[in-house]
Amino acid sequence: MKDEPIPADQFEICKRELSRLNKLVDEIDRSLNIAQGIHMHEAQAALYECRKDIETAGYWLAKSLRMLTERRG
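Given the sequence above, the corresponding structure tokens read:
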């Protein structure tokens, strides 16, 4: 696999998509009030895990960008 250059706006695209995903999770969370009992708790737990994964993705995205910048600098 070639070490192809990363488009200059790739980081911004990733940040924007993570933000859109986070907004979608928030929207789903707001609609949970129609769920009841065990299903609501399962859905809330799944959304909590999803939010953690979004935060983790953002962390690794920023870290990889720093590493690439240092390697090229």
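The helical segments are 10-30, 37-72. Try to locate this feature in the token string yourself.
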